[in-house]
Amino acid sequence: MITTERLNLVPMGAQHLDGLAAMNADPAVMEHFPDVMTRAQSAAQLDRMQAHWAAHQMGLFALISSQTGAFLGFTGLTHPGYETPFTPCVEVGWRLHPAAWGKGLAHEAATACLDWGFGALDLHEIVSFTARANTRSIRLMQRLHMQTDQTEDFEHPMLEIGHRLSWHVLYRLDRARFQACR
Hints:
The structure is a single chain. By secondary structure, the chain is of the alpha+beta class. The chain has a single domain (about 1-180), classed as Gcn5-related N-acetyltransferase (GNAT) (Aminopeptidase). The protein is about 30% helix and about 25% strand. It has helices at about 15-25, 40-55, 105-120, 135-145, 175-180, and strands at about 1-5, 5-10, 60-65, 70-80, 90-95, 125-130, 145-150, 155, 165-175. Strand 3 and strand 4 (about 70-80) form a beta hairpin. The two termini are about 20 Å apart.
């Protein structure tokens, strides 16, 4: 578990399925994904999250409000399960319930995960990526001091070529930059 000022980050577990399924079924949350997810799809996603933890001793954390105990979303470090020009890599990612948007919680949680990754896990680089249209996540990557190079933009291999979300931006952060910007 990782604790921040307002959050408890705990590995995703079965107790988080209701919150995950509700979040994944919300069209606003899933705007920059191909579609909303059914409860069964969210359960399968949770199974993959737990398998990642078991295989790598890292993964996605449930974000739990330290004040209310509410499930607010997830953030964490994962290995993408597909090939891209920049894999293998470790990605920091997030998805939050709309009630948690605009409060700096994604930044707080992602910073804690980056600190964990560069500290306890001794990683040298962490990446993040999103669809070009996802300006909220891009702004967060920039606030995290991640850097992009447009020549590394890529078509996501899990989407059809020409899909409205296929082109993604890649942001990178190395340990030295993370430590220098703290």
